[in-house]
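Notebook, bench 3.
Goal today: get a predicted structure for alpha-L-fucosidase from Streptomyces bluensis so we can plan the truncation constructs. The sequence was checked against the plasmid map this morning, with no discrepancies at the termini. Length recorded as 688 residues. Pasting the sequence as submitted so the record is complete.
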Amino acid sequence: MEPTQASTGRSASEWALHQLLDLIQSGSLGPGDRLPPERNLATRLGVSRGMAREAISALVTMGVLESRHGAGVFVTSLEPAVVLPRLAPVVAIMAGKHPDDVARLHAQIEGAAAARAAARATPESLTALTQALTALRIAQHEPTPRAPRDRFKQTIWRLSDDRFHRAIASVAQDTVAEGMILLLRSSREYGECVSDDLLHRHEELVRAIAGHEPDAARSIAQNLVTAELPALRPSSGAPDVSVSRAHSPAPLSAADETASTDDHSVAEWFRDAKLGLIVHWGIYSVPGWAPLPAQTPGDVRPAPVEETPSRYFAEWYQASLREGPTAEHHERVYGTRPYRAFRTAFESVLRDWSPTAWAEEFAASGARYVVQVAKHHDGFLLWPSRVRHPHDEEWRVTRDVVGETAVAVRERGMRFGVFYSSGADWSFDPKSMAGASDVQTSRPAGTEYARYVEAHWRELIESYRPDGLWNDTGYPAAGDARKLIRDYRTLVPDGVATERFRTSEAGLIPAPAEGGPWESVRPVGLSFGWNREETADHTLSGPELVLMLMDVVAKNGNLLLGVSPDEHGHLPAHQLASLRYLGHWLERFGEAVYATRPWQHTTTTTADGRTVWFTRSKSGDALYLTIEGGVEGDCEILDLWLPGEARPVPLGEDRPVLHRAGSRGSLLHLPAPPAASPVTVLRLSPAL
């Protein structure tokens, strides 16, 4: 029985539109056909001429019909790639109102197109796709030192990326998908497109299509769309951290206010903690060796982590065996002994290992959270996983290092997190072994590895309920990091996760940057893993740790310090000395650190060039000034003008210091500096 207007419940105009589309879909009106005169068409559709006119106008707007002046209205070619993009204004409104729904639809369409492309790909049909990939590589590696060039680079990337995704639909021989891809990409806002990780995902997608892997292609394409086109528009702006030269502190800028309102997405405990430790201990701790970088005479301080090549990281021992100083050292000391042979020695040490001794030292350092490496790039597991390794079932510990550390740490009031290398795993695919410079492009590919990684993460989450997830080297392109994090947050509502998952999920802990909460990660020495070549000269001293912590905290960050148990599971004496100094200092001055928030200015200097850091209490009723170095007597703090009634008091004392206006800022008369402290800490309450 044919439906009628009454039985469908549609309005007259909806009915007219439905009936007219049925005529076109059935072939009664084909491409190039002229519509009957309006009166005849209305009679045929069973509606008024006005309703027929509305239906025609709607289809003209959509591109299904074409009005030719003086000649009538004709059915178009009905090519989806031509018709569908005409709906962009409508979809743009939908993307604004229902971004998550549109994002899911988009991911499903592109995933389906990629799966069909993988099923139908031929060497000839892949030509346009590989050409588009080449264009993306050129766009990624184009040098862009200036902001206008950055915008130009983004534009070139986006144009090349649209071409890439249209080429997938072409390989799939799917004109509807091509039209929908054009439509959806023109209606949504790109995130920060240009990155090595996104380029790597494009490359993996091409490999999956060329390798005729529909499931992998579908998953990679869906995750790629999610990463490129986040459903929600990212917030922008960075705080103004310059110090005003006015006679009173400048108010927070609009950008500051934006940052602070976005901070709620990072758990409060993490923002309050300020100091954490990450523990690298594994098979690599048995040889425990890496070359030391060349030093300028008289300069023995560790270089910044981002400037330290992986060959100086002892935890990269296995990858460094390919050539160079580590390979030469290994041959000289161990001959032809393979890396995996160190497992026997590690397992024997585990019998006497004491997680309690670790936890006591961690707590004494003042750390409020501890992150245990569960799997590093060598793929060796520090917990007795039930997930089967498809190539090496025994590549894991027999004693639960992760679980026992979690218990010991939590018993002493600290939070516990896990670190897991999702991108790199040399045990899963030895051919993927690489140094830090190319680890992002040498990760195991395919759905098997993606499933293996996800199963591990879910097992860690369900078994230990970690307070934080510290990922490394990205996430398999065939996996879904966003869903993993959302499921984790359902189970652990105040849990945190790092941006190294490389997903658009909100509220991740970013790498060093000014603005909202972030985390700076670096070892106490040169290497995260134990390196027997390092001495106290290669280790940050206690006073240096204090200064580093204050610099990070004042800028709204947390400091995560890497500690390196040796081959016996003992913390090196030179690292312990620095950590204990830091802990003793925090016992006395932690009020200016823990549970603080950044002030409207992060730092200034004294007249003689010493750094001054500002922090404020979470309640906002106290401001802390931390002045570098042992200052006694008059100390002028540039660009800070204290009102006459202000009462700056050294932390832990009762008597306020005298102050008056100087020529370039407030002049404070400081007492003798506290013993065993590289800084002087003052408290102002009420805060400015």
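Residues 16 and 471 are 55 Å apart (CA to CA). Confidence is low (pLDDT under 50) at residues 1-10, 143-149, 231-264.
Flagging this for group meeting.
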